[in-house]
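Record format v2
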Amino acid sequence: MRIGELARRTGVSERSLRYYEQQGLLASERTPGGHRDYPERAVDRVIRIQELFAAGLCSKKIAQLLPCIRDHDGGPAVTATPWLVQELLAERERIHRTIADLRRSQATLDEVIDAASRP
Amino acid sequence: MRIGELARRTGVSERSLRYYEQQGLLASERTPGGHRDYPERAVDRVIRIQELFAAGLCSKKIAQLLPCIRDHDGGPAVTATPWLVQELLAERERIHRTIADLRRSQATLDEVIDAASRP
DNA sequence: GTAGAATCTGACACTGATGTCAAGTTCAAG
DNA sequence: CTTGAACTTGACATCAGTGTCAGATTCTAC
């Protein structure tokens, strides 16, 4: 599929898709004329990338991480190096703290919302 | 207390504390010479501000929200306007989705970490 | 072959919180 | 009074992902 369709189906802008490729996160075949041509599983991959971005990982880490992910359709996954595992554990911890933070903020919002919807 | 101590106790840089003041998030008295002087409850407030930043709210929204928060020590809280409530509900929803995203990413990381720590 | 839609590359802008540096002022203690 | 630490304002830089625009090329359908 071409970039426009991929963008539509993932909700990610074409600009970002090209950026992902530039960062080594997303590969594409090319048509004879040079247009990008993506396989079906690119959809899942892009969604995964977006999740990881949303989780606060930078593109470099994602690039290291992706080859180790057992894709739905993908081939054999690479095993993470001990060093990468260390990094990922740190990320995991960070995400854990972030979730806790989000919960607290949600509680804060709830209080204010509650107070406003009370007589 | 002065800005240095507040920074130390909250883990937030002096730069950021001044920025918060500039954005109307954090008030301070001034000494005769112009140095900022914070009350004890500024500590809680700064921590709360950080949480909200971490939750992805921008300073403008936080500025609207803060007066409606019943501070631990604070006086009477303002009731949120219906419009603000709408905004906050949207933020709440966004945070909810973010948490779901983070969970998925955490699961992804776990898979990779697991796979690497297996024979 | 031609028109119009889609895509290409490359460059520059933005956002928003924070880092950093400079030059000057104030504070606290000797 | 002096000295060094702490503080002040203001300006400019950074980061990373994304938006946007321009000019050229390719694709698709008639």
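Chain B is about 60% helix and 5% strand.
The first strand of chain B starts at residue 29 and ends at 30.
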